[in-house]
Amino acid sequence: MSFQIPKNAPTFGNPQQRQLEDRLWASSGVTARSRGGPGGGAGGSAGVLGDVQDRVGGFLNPNRASLPMYKDKPYAYAPSGRARPVYRRKRVLGLITLVVLGLLWYTGAFADHHAAAVGKFNQWGWLTADSKAKGAKADWDKRRKLVVDAMELSWDAYERYAWGYDEFHPVTKSGRHMAPKGLGWIIIDSLDTLMLMNLTSRLTHAREWLSTSLTWDQDQDVNTFETTIRMLGGLLSAHYLSTEFPNLAAITDDGPNMPGEDLYLEKAKDLADRLMAAFDSPSGIPYASVNLAQFKGIISHDDLGASSTAETTTLQLEFKYLAKLTGEKDFWDKAEKVMELVDNNGVKDGLVPIYIYATTGEFRGENIRLGSRGDSYYEYLIKQYLQTNKQEAVYQDMWREALQGVRKHLVTYTEPSHFTIIGERQSGLDGDLTPKMDHLVCFMPGTVALAATGGLTEQEARKLPTWSKQDEADMQLARELMQTCWGMYKYMATGLAAEITYFHIADPPLPESAPHQAPADFDPLPDAEWHKDFDVKPQDSHNLQRPETVESLFYMWRITGDMRYRDWGWEMFKSFMNYTAVEEGGGFSSLNNANVVPPVLRDNMESFWLAETLKYFYLLFSPDDLLPLDKVVLNTEAHPLPRFDMGKLFKTGWERKPRDKEGKLVTQPKTE
Ligand code: DMJ
């Protein structure tokens, strides 16, 4: 389970510089006060609000020391240095502007909102300065360092304005808890990114919060899936990286026999013990939520009590690795049982409806999609197969069946330019195909390529005796889907994809076998033919800083070695920097509308911006020996976990029931 320490992990030449920065922070009063964590004064929602106001009040205080500046990082808005009243007036002005913009939008003034607008509004424009001369070699090391800059800006903004809070609102410079004492939502989700980027002093601060403020003993309902992938996954990967790569963001108190040695693992185990209550349902399918202090599973309040399918089947990598670390088989068995229960429904062609009852273990409804509530079911099939070093054939079998099902029922081509898309069957496989892709579906190109090569490069995998025509076809599908996902970015005014994109398709939809050839390049002209294939509705035009497309670009770059994927990633990174930066050192924000320039900010930074999006940019621009894909498996929140052999303690405790060609269960004749 170990592999080479990356040769190219970044180091900081001048640690004193960082300490100096930290002292400046402390002198501002903001960080110093908040270092006690949320426990101080945040004992309930009233306390939380009070604390937020306290922070904002502190910021408004004209006597406060000024905050550290980022003059050398032009994509952080230049700090205004103005007094607060102006800031207040600006908020009013901002409100008026928003209303006016809303009216303009409503009246169609932004009807021509395509790429033509890009470039007209680029008030920083610093990244265009990095544009290399035609034919010149790109400096990927420099670009990778810019990603570290972005991580520092985001983290420091959070640290400055919302330290210890679970939500960060970068525009209003405030935070909010999701539990009385906070869950460390942003801090824990960021641990491994801080390690990979070697941000030692920030990691030390995060660990200090974990050891002094974090408690799972809170009377709070939390979402089983989100808490598992972000918190349990974050802690487990922090444990993995800090033990296997002690040189990454090396700190002093976590070595063997040191007081902080097992901090991450202890916190992970405590959390997992509580999350295990989710599996105490009549069927064994986990409940949607858990009350942490009460160790109690809670049925979904919505969807007629059904859990989301993806949520129940995206817990396995985390619980299985924890079982391996602790030797506690129960973690393994409970998580594994879910896969058996799902499979025993015998769905057609491996495609599962997006809801499942924890009470009965049966699916609810027939809505089938690879977007929200469906996505990571498929992702974790192949990743479970890889996690245990390809020893559990059952998961590869399920993945292959599902991918064939995707080809047969969901893949089609757009008009007039023939992009490959994965649509939805909202009324079951006999219903119509809806030509719609959530941004979430863009995990697929990378995952399909990962499944085809097992994490080797395409070149290496092709030499294996097991390499097949199907693998070749899967790589082709991955390339085509990657092109479509990138088109979803190119289509938008900011160069940042919408949450949902619709497509124009033929009636009836073309089958997967139809000849098709999408354009290799995207003509930049606003009236270019390819624009006709795409459609973004105003209500779907938000961008939540999601990672799926850069995640796939990372896999595609590593696996194919095709430079275009890195180049696209760089273009995407520039769009994030140019259009999501928040003034006054606020870091970066989600957008309410990514299809107008200037964009409309949403005043929220998702924790996966730090855990996933920036991490994938960093990995995409890094040398390939940083987290080799044939040695690790990244959970759905981009937390790297090791692959391992099951050993004597663990085995696949179930087999698939016999089924027909379509995957439907074959009932065995009863023997008298
Ligand atoms: C993340 O929490 C995970 O990637 C999850 O699988 C899907 N949604 C977000 C990111 O978009």
What does this structure look like?
By secondary structure, the chain is mostly helical. Helices cover 42% and strands 8% of the residues. The strands form eight sheets. Strands 3-4-5 form a three-stranded antiparallel sheet.
Low-confidence stretches: 1-90, 103-125
Strand content: 5-15%
The profile of the biggest β sheet is: 3 strands, antiparallel
Number of helices: 20
Tell me, briefly, the overall form.
globular
Distance between the termini: 49 Å
Tell me how many strands there are: 19
Helix-strand makeup class? mainly alpha
Mean pLDDT: 85
Helix content: 40-55%
Strand order of the largest sheet: 3-4-5
Small-molecule binders here are: 1-deoxymannojirimycin
Radius of gyration over all CA atoms, rounded: 25 Å
Protein name: alpha-1,2-Mannosidase
GO cellular component, one term: endoplasmic reticulum
Family: Belongs to the glycosyl hydrolase 47 family.
GO molecular function: calcium ion binding; mannosyl-oligosaccharide 1,2-alpha-mannosidase activity
Question: What descriptive keywords fit this protein?
Answer:
binds 1-deoxymannojirimycin; three-stranded antiparallel β-sheet; 19 strands; 672 residues; mainly alpha; globular; 20 helices; disordered N terminus
